[in-house]
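Late entry, written up from scratch paper. The run itself happened at the end of the previous shift, but nothing got recorded in the book at the time, so transcribing now.
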Amino acid sequence: MFRKILIANRGEIACRIARTCRRLGIEVATVHSEADRDAQHVREIGESVLIGKASATSSYLRIDRIIEAARQVGADAVHPGYGFLAENAEFAAALEAAGIAFIGPSADVLARFGDKAAAKAEAVAAGVPVIAGTTEPSASVPELVAAVEGMRLPVLLKAAAGGGGKGMRVVSSPETLVADIEAATREGQSSFGNPNLIVEQYLPEARHIEVQVLGDGQGRVIHLFDRECSLQRRHQKVIEEAPVTSLPEALRQSILDQAVRLCEAVRYRGLGTVEFIARDNEAYFLEVNPRIQVEHPVTEEITGLDLVELQIRAVAEGCLPLSQSDVSSRGVAVEARLYAEDPETDFLPSTGRIEQLRLPSGIRVDSGIMPGMVVTQFYDPMIAKLIAWGSNRREAYDRLAAALGETAVAGVRTNLSLLRTLCADDDVLANDVHTGSIAPVVADLAITPAAEPAEVAIGAALWLREQRSGKVGAWSGWNGLAGWRLGAVDEDGQTAPVLRLIDGEAKHLVSFGAVTSDDCVPVFVDGLRHEVRINSHEGSTSLLVEVEGRSLVLDFSCEASKLSFVYGTRDVSLKAEPYLSGMILSGASAGDAEVKAPMMGQIVAVDVQPGQRVVAGDRLVLMESMKMELVLRAQTSGTVASVHCAAGDMVERDQPVVIITAEEAAAA
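Output as recorded:
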């Protein structure tokens, strides 16, 4: 057995691996970037080596620095977790040359499976059906264009070295082909250090099924059953479950057998996942993920096995610690991935400080973040994984739904509303899902219910509380509510208007009355009076708020002019502006349209310059955040008045990057 393991990863998976190592009596250390100096995995593991700046290419993807870190802490093995270098054959070979064990497949197997095109060739050789597509990876735009022109649309572009939905694009139109290829190659390079792509025929409305395997590196392989992973958005899994209960048993058994046969053929070592796409009672090989998966907890829950322990022992001992007959399945487990994402911006990652975090009890929760920590633009925005087990699917989903109801996050927006909706969806509960099932659910969620007047009043009272405490100073000259103190008071005790609270397209006019002796704040929303009391309890991160005789426990955050709070299943986000501001805060003229960064990130390219005419829909700026590209387009036709960014710049959320003078304003 290994004496000390260096975990070359971050977040919840680093914490998860460390817990098993300690249970096995193995010492553990980890690594971190400058952005992760205060991260939970650094705190929890207790020994960590700084390996570079914030970007993954300067830290978690640096083979030389990770090997040096392993030497520095005296590790005799490295666990790569998932993502980053977990599938990198060069990394495994470099560790072997340094005399350090790699907890994963051999470099040779990684080269054969870590590359999607090579994995397809191995599947063909093993007699496993594959989807039609290219067999050689390429980063050449002309070569990829030619490959696509020989196939029927839609097709799928896939990063050859990729995983986790990064570097993937569905091409449905020839007009977007070149742009899609360029974007996918950039994402592949950014996420995995490899821009090469393969092209596959895209099968809509198919099922995504995967098989967990374990091998000893000598040709002996067993399966640990299968998982349903069809609930995806942007090719990234959102909810997974194990085992698969709705496929015809013959097809399901065929998938299990094919996965084992393929991995036996290459003498696979350690944990791995063989992925298939199933449609019309047929299954096709997709790829092998030669590493531990994000969704491995659902397999642990139904088998009672510790997959990290099995992975470590298979590599350390060179044999399997159990046989196929030792593996059994009990009940159903389902996992939901809680992400920092904003439903109002098509679920783009939401960056910022986690002000409040309430995770449920009674089920398994794997998390890599704590209150007070920051979700940055540099890494995956996962907050936690919630895993529920039941004796059947409905029981598992009911338990997960109840747990999601207990969950609250303040400070960043999350996909919590989507997860709750999916757990109550009739098709999901009936197990009638495919890889496109989430799209209509997301479309319905885009129609967010407006905040009730009482909720706007709560937001106003919370905002006033922050102003009076000095925690928020959103507008120079406005701190302390000078306008409120000096304004005239009418017969109802109402001041002149103080601020607007913006909820989507709605703008609510807010004023206040005098705070009473029992800490009641009279709040006037569009002229209607609401009585709000706020109570905080020492040792609690939540607030007890009473409005109109109704008491609510909520979690709240306020950042500059944006405030949000959650209670029960409600997630309310409001933007505050001074009543007299007219929102002219940036020096732009009244006829100007600001194009703002939707999140923190780095500018990749600027396509316009001052004086240039643009039409609505033109690309202005290309930016990258969390290894995902975002295109900022003109929302109106006009002339570029000014540009406030350059390629390579880091920008904050809501920072103006381009200002356009609309044609109507210019004509006036």
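DSSP finds 18 helices and 38 strands in the chain.
(Scratch paper discarded after transcription.)
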